């Protein structure tokens, strides 16, 4: 009699997703909530949270933001981890030249998770369509059961499904992630520094703001960003190993189409500053 082969062991999640799942489990521990408790306080079921927290499934961005809210944690770090995991899972990470914070950087190229010089605006359009879909169908979806038969927890869309929390001058000095301006930004320009760090200038047409971000950095590296005629210089510094392993963002500054946006990098290891700029397009 032929013996049946032993069942295959469960596949381990990709490292990017595993890192995100570990961060989410830490946040769950802070909330003191069980899986059932999370399901009761969010729009996601108990079984869904089990898959998200074990890394078997990449959670929606909204689930990450909901858990951050419940744990009283600023969402920037976990959303950055989600961006890395989502990019790797969708294959976009292979197409983008600069690798995310946890990978080795290639020799040349310009990354983007929204659009690069409008040439790859398709990704931004898709992201915008998804955002509209979430907001438009959330009220209907919340009235329906989950695919696993569990009912939704509430009849109103989660706060994360709402649009940006500011626009123009009201965004001045605010975090793009916290104010929900970073869902589908344009990448105006990219630059790789002599120390190996990657920099990007970002622009949100919906919020009318610009900011800069950096990764593959070292503790003490600093990034400044300003818009011509704006009068404000926004800066960010890599303050810890956690920062060095993730995206670090400057606060936003209000910008209009046609404005020139400039970023300058100051390496911790010394050496001259490195600056680059771009113009916000229509």
TrEMBL record:
Pfam families (alphabetical): DUF2690, HTH_31
SUPFAM superfamilies noted in UniProt: lambda repressor-like DNA-binding domains
Record region (Disordered): 89-115, 150-171
Annotated protein name in UniProt: DUF2690 domain-containing protein
């Amino acid at each position: 009699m032929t013996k049946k082969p032993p069942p295959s062991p469960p596949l381990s999640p990709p490292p990017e997703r595993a890192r995100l799942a570990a961060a989410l489990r830490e946040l769950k521990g802070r909330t003191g909530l069980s899986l059932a408790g999370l399901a009761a306080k969010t729009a996601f079921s108990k079984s869904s949270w089990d898959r998200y927290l074990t890394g078997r499934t990449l959670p929606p961005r909204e689930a990450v933001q909901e858990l951050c809210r419940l744990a009283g944690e600023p969402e920037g770090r976990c959303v950055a981890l989600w961006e890395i995991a989502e990019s790797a899972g969708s294959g976009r990470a292979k197409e983008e030249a600069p690798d995310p914070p946890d990978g080795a950087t290639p020799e040349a190229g310009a990354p983007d998770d929204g659009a690069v010089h409008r040439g790859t605006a398709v990704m931004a359009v898709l992201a915008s369509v998804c955002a509209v879909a979430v907001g438009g169908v959330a009220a209907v979806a919340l009235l329906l059961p989950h695919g696993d038969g569990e009912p939704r927890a509430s009849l109103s869309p989660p706060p994360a499904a709402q649009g940006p929390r500011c626009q123009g001058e009201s965004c001045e000095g605010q975090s793009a992630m916290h104010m929900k301006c970073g869902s589908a930004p344009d990448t105006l320009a990219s630059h790789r520094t002599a120390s190996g760090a990657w920099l990007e200038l970002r622009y949100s047409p919906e919020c009318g703001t610009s900011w800069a971000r950096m990764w593959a950095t070292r503790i003490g590296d600093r990034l400044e960003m300003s818009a011509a005629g704006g009068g404000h210089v926004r800066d960010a510094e890599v303050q810890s190993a956690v920062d060095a392993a993730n995206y670090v963002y400057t606060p936003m500054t209000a910008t209009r189409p046609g404005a020139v946006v400039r970023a300058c990098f100051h390496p911790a290891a010394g050496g001259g500053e490195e600056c680059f700029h771009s113009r916000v397009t229509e």
